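Could you join me in thinking about how sequence relates to backbone shape in a protein? To get us started, please write out a protein record for me. Would you write everything just below, so we can both look at the same thing?
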Amino acid sequence: MPETLRNQPLLTPVELESRLDEFYASLSQFNDGWFFESHETLEDLWMVTPFPEREMFQGFIQAAAAFVHLVRGEYPGVLKLLDAAVDKLSRAGDEQFGVDIDAFVRDLRSARDEIATLGPERFIEWDAGRVPRIAFAPQ
């Protein structure tokens, strides 16, 4: 990662508000099954976002990355990233920026439990149509 991106100043609340279209684009990409793109779209915004929103954005990035690992057949990464995403997103509250975080966290937990139940030998049998969708209304 270029040093210039790593050392950018954090956004003010007004600046963050003006860039929420990037966040919503990432959520739309996730819902459309473009998990890698969702991760990439949100990463630039995440890097300059202050806490606590920064942690929430990282949770969405980790959720997207978990399903990239699922598509690639990488069982340990799926569980690790789903656990991390649930941990971060569950601290964000029930709703943020018009996103139903509570429902998404609940659905991520269910997906994680279903995948873990199948285990490393059978997890690829998990119905990818059950990937949680993110309910949101841009503000």
About this structure: The longest strand covers residues 95-96. Residues 8-120 form a domain with the Hyaluronidase domain-like fold (CATH 1.10.3450.10). The beta strands are 95-96, 99-100. The chain has a mean pLDDT of 94.
